[in-house]
């Protein structure tokens, strides 16, 4: 959908086990990732990964408030409605679609090779530790990556029906290797849909069941391994002459990344079940009653094992960088690996039950038609139901994580036995009503109101009210349009509505919480001391987003040109945010509260063309453009009267307290405030501009920050072209993002020259970047880059055979390629950096390589 739906922005990595980040019409909150809400076959909040692409019948993206407000508390960032394929009356139809291909690395980090690095340290008067210098030219990225990753996807479906029932069933199997060693995903999805009608079709029952089982192999200690492949010297070897792994434990924080991968496993299995039962009853007087009851269960098992090789790391401190783009670095002490192998296992379960009940009234009289709906919705979500355990000191590495009881952790005094568990429940109750009025198919009115009550908010503000109204005018139906031949369709739309957001907070965030605050001795026994660790906020309330939309749909020149244009104004207030306050005022020193407001204004244009339409040759083209302007309009909150908040720390060497972004009134989310780099002084030291206009090599965090750009794109582009010639079809899709900045914190961290004799460096380090310059990596304008790019996203060539084999209705063979090339000046791995969440536009630890793929596919229907 990215590039094909105006204002739709997706950021994804090459990791097969990581989901994409989706932003629709700009970031509307600073707390949750701002992703849209999914409704699959009427089930609200279903996981999109449950749906195999071959099973999708339609996808509708709802953006204006009149369309989304009926979903109330979950629709602030848009709604994506997915309808899967259903059965039809007739004989059983069997369809198969399969695709297989390879992926290769499309881009990787720009690091020095052995010759470049050796020349650099020699120019600095340094030399290698003889232990490290094997005279090799090792590309550590290549050592932990596959040259090619294979994948295949198969979908087999059956559908059919009789006079009173229809059915559809499918099985989907995916096997996909990641380009990183140790990473892969295998998934099996089964789906069944049955519809039964009775009493002259006045009564209909439907059952939908989908089950997905996913097995994922993750890269063990992925962030640590990425850290190691970037810092390992290219002159070092992977293996010693005796075949053992090369290690230099005399250098702190220096571990062989190949050894880390090959001596550990990190497996994850996930079972996702969604089942729904629906009934529809046609009643007298134009009434219809619908009931949909659904249940979702997500069960995951996470298992890790670090074999006895990790005995070497007991005295080590591993750098566990957070996910790409996020804040400070944390550490894990190597003694947690125990001795003679250590195993960890965690079981997690999430259950959600929903009830959607509504009554519809349809009535037409004369030129008037009315559709009215009143309904009730209930949701219960029990999540965080988990238990975890760990053990160490196994007799053999062959045990892996299969039997923790065979370990003897009590003999290792430094090992921490991990026993944890917890559970939380979130409930929501909603009432809603909607009326659609149509006069003479010219004038359209829609109005709705929804009340949502959620258990996550304070006692004083549990309920939120979300109204919406939409107007439509079919101009082409007016008498004064009868004699014109330009427009065959012309419709003006206007809407206003309010939606809510409760994502990102738990049922306990508004409550007074007690926990362990310390220990004390009681008659010689060490007991836990309990006390308040979180303060309550009974006034914690809904984050709400109001959206105004004005749109025009048009078709002209006998369908040769069609499209739409939309102008919108979206404003979010009472943003949910965790504020730091004095522990003397609030236990724990932090509290969730409402504060501030964000505005998004934009314009979206969609144009469809049919330049050529002949018997054997057709060319269709579609282009969409979207511009969004984001601005923080207020940061007022009960705990601060300031107009800015510093955040997004990337944790660079020698940069304690340094941040990359500031939430500031009048500026967009993701605005970069940093030092202004002014080159080198006469001593070869990095110098920066101070606020008083002078130069310094000791700038002050915050005080000497300047506004240096923002992460929000000014323009999103999608351009699709499809050519059909006889039985051939060819499609090419180009996507572009323009006008945004990226803070390349990864390049900054790889430019810390004082460690040059023990760590590799970015290939962008210059000869005048001296090893004596400890501020060479300071986050500054030096590492702010343009994020513009134009990408050939997809190209497909297919051929549909004329059926000559009895029983074969359709047969199509095609080849496709994805992410063929990208035009950009960005120096990082990929300019497609996340635009949502806590640190939009920050490229930090974003090391998993992007890939390009080449595939061949087959579709056949019997």
TrEMBL record:
Instruction: Give the family, as the similarity comment puts it.
Output: Belongs to the TonB-dependent receptor family.
Bilayer topology annotation: Multi-pass membrane protein
What are the GO cellular component annotations?
Answer: cell outer membrane
What Pfam family does this protein match (any one)? TonB_dep_Rec_b-barrel
Listed A to Z, the keywords are: Cell outer membrane, Membrane, Receptor, TonB box, Transmembrane, Transmembrane beta strand, Transport
Q: Tell me the superkingdom of the source.
A: Bacteria
Kindly give the SUPFAM superfamilies that the UniProt entry links to this protein.
Porins
NCBIfam families associated with the record:
OMP_RagA_SusC, SusC_RagA_signa
**What is the protein name for this chain?**
TonB-dependent receptor
Q: Where is the TonB-dependent receptor plug domain?
A: 3-79
Indicate the segments forming the TonB-dependent receptor-like beta-barrel domain, all copies: 235-819
Q: Does the keyword Metal-binding apply?
A: no
The protein's location, in the record's own words, is: Cell outer membrane
